[in-house]
Amino acid sequence: MIDQVLAAFVQGPVMMIFATRSAAGLPAVGRAIGARVTSGRDAIDIFVSPSQWADALSGVAVGSQIAFTACRPSDYKTFQFKGEVLDVTPMDGADQAMAERYADDMTRVLLDLGVQQPQIDHWLTRVGLVRLRLQPRSTFAQTPGPGAGAQLAQVAP
After folding, report:
1. What is the mean pLDDT of residues 64-93?
2. CA 75, CA 78: separation in Å to the nearest integer?
3. What is the pLDDT of residue 21?
4. Quick check: pTM over 0.85?
5. What is the pLDDT of residue 156?
6. Which of 27, 84, 93, 136 sees the fewest Cβ atoms within 10 Å?
7. How confident is the model at residue 88 (pLDDT cuts 50, 70, 90)?
8. Contacts from 26-34 at CB under 8 Å and sequence distance 24+?
9. Alpha carbon distance 82, 116 (integer Å)
10. Paired strand residues for 29
11. What would the pLDDT profile of 105-143 be if each residue is shown by its tens digit?
């Protein structure tokens, strides 16, 4: 189970990256445009752009291995979840609204940090998103410094 503090962090204004294997079996990464921890706090929905991250999504199917990393850009506090994909589905209206809110919030955060609008617009694609549901099997603290890489939780399959 994902605790409430970690759930709030993941659903906040953090940079989000997911890593998978492409259809060719090669490592591939992409950015997520928002995330939501499920009501049972046992899975995470992430919103991604197939047009922007086609290679990273080309090998994704139910049961695929996935890593999801959330990093707060103001202080680099970072957590990584490793697990498997439970579902890949089109977004519904609530998903799209959450992705829009995330993109608006992240835009403000990044502008305040001095990132230029054209860079932000490239990262935060809001159109044609899909929802990946992942079930974390393990969680790691990845904030640079002492303790980076420490496992926080192990979840039984």
Report:
1. 96
2. 9
3. 96
4. yes
5. 42
6. 93
7. very high
8. 28/53, 28/55, 28/56, 28/58, 28/59, 29/53, 29/56, 30/56, 30/57, 31/123, 31/124, 32/68, 33/99, 33/102, 33/103, 33/124, 33/125, 33/126, 33/129, 34/98, 34/99, 34/101, 34/102, 34/103
9. 31
10. 19
11. 999 999 999 999 999 988 888 889 999 999 999 999 998
Q: What is the mean pLDDT of residues 26-51?
A: 96
What's the Cα-to-Cα distance from 67 to each of 3, 16, 105, 120, 140, rounded to whole Å?
A: 18, 11, 23, 23, 11
DSSP string, the chain: ---HHHHHHHTSS-EEEEEEE-TTS-EEEEEEEEEEE-TTSS-EEEEE-TTTSHHHHHT--TT-EEEEEEE-TTT--EEEEEEEEEEEEE--HHHHHHHHHHHHHHHHHHHHTT--HHHHHHH---SS-EEEEEEEEEEEE--SSTTTT-EEEE---
